[in-house]
TrEMBL record:
GO MF terms held by the record: actin filament binding
InterPro entries to which the protein is assigned, alphabetical: Actin-crosslinking, FRG1
Protein name: Protein frg1
GO cellular-component term (any): striated muscle dense body
Family: Belongs to the FRG1 family.
Organism expressing this protein natively: Echinococcus multilocularis (Fox tapeworm)
Length: 287
């Protein structure tokens, strides 16, 4: 029998050389979510810049103050060749509803990328209930859904009634406006005037409500107006608000205001100020 048959075959091992164990790098669990957040933020920033600083509203609570109504279903479709598939797609022009001095709501001219809505295309949103809102034009008239044969939307009302109330509907990332007659807002293709006649929301009824409200949150806005300038100023403003004297003079306690800072940290600032005012009396809210 061959002597080499008894030899063990395998990898050649040399002295002073240890095998290096290859370990797979595990991705942190937050990597995918972080990338998704960056993608969303980039898309939001691009959309914001493309519409001149006006961002898309996706919740009813954000429909307040100056808004613009963009009709997204009316933008012309873009055609692309197969050779340009790797290039970024151009943003189609934006079409906004525009108020005119004759009392009609028309479709405004196309706005190029980066161009904001014109002044006549900006409405003031006024919340009527938890689900409905009214739109006031720059001519101080409210947008109205008429029940005429053409179901035109006009802007001649001086007050808010049932016909001036619209319900924004958000679903699957899209939005539409429902009038009091259970029909959706769209634009007539022949006259370019806003109408409220479609019983179902199709592509021509799709729209985007935009706002230019500042999204940065100021924590001082969460405080009462009297407490935004420090505890010493807050005590003075509350004394002027709640106390009254015959000589019309304001009287403050001479105690140290450091107690107010301590009370603010603990969470009983108002109780502390009430105790301090109680010593001065003439307070209708004193114990």
């Amino acid at each position: 029998m061959d002597a080499y048959a008894f030899a063990k075959s395998g990898k050649l091992k040399l002295k002073c050389h240890e095998d290096k164990v290859k370990r797979r790098k595990r991705k942190s669990p937050g990597t995918s979510s972080t990338r998704a957040t960056k993608v969303v933020m980039n898309a939001f920033s691009e959309d914001l810049a493309a519409h001149g600083g006006w961002w898309e509203i996706s919740k009813f609570v954000d429909i307040i103050g100056p808004v613009a109504i963009q009709m997204t279903g009316l933008a012309p479709a873009q055609e692309y060749s197969s050779s340009s598939t790797n290039l970024p797609l151009p943003i189609p022009p934006a079409y906004y509803l525009s108020a005119s001095d004759d009392g009609f709501i028309n479709l405004g001219p196309p706005r190029k990328e980066g161009e904001p809505p014109a002044p006549e295309e900006i409405f003031t949103a006024v919340k009527v209930s938890d689900t409905k809102v009214a739109f006031k034009t720059g001519y101080d008239k409210y947008m109205t859904a008429n029940t005429s044969a053409q179901n035109l939307i006009t802007a001649a009302a001086d007050a808010i009634g049932p016909r001036e109330q619209f319900e924004p509907v958000f679903q699957d990332g899209k939005a539409a406006l429902l009038g009091f007659n259970n029909c959706f807002v769209s634009v007539d293709a022949g006259s370019d005037r806003a109408v409220c006649r479609a019983q179902k929301a199709g592509s021509t009824e799709m729209l985007v409500i935009r706002s230019n409200r500042d999204l940065t949150h100021n924590p001082l806005n969460d405080l009462p107006e009297e407490e935004r300038h420090g505890t010493k100023k807050a005590e003075y403003l509350y004394v002027r608000k709640f106390q009254s004297w015959q000589d019309k003079k304001i009287r403050l306690t001479r105690e140290d205001t450091a107690a107010l800072e301590d009370a603010k940290r603990v969470g009983n600032l108002h109780e502390c100020m009430l105790d301090r005012r109680e010593k001065m009396k003439s307070d209708r809210y004193c114990k």
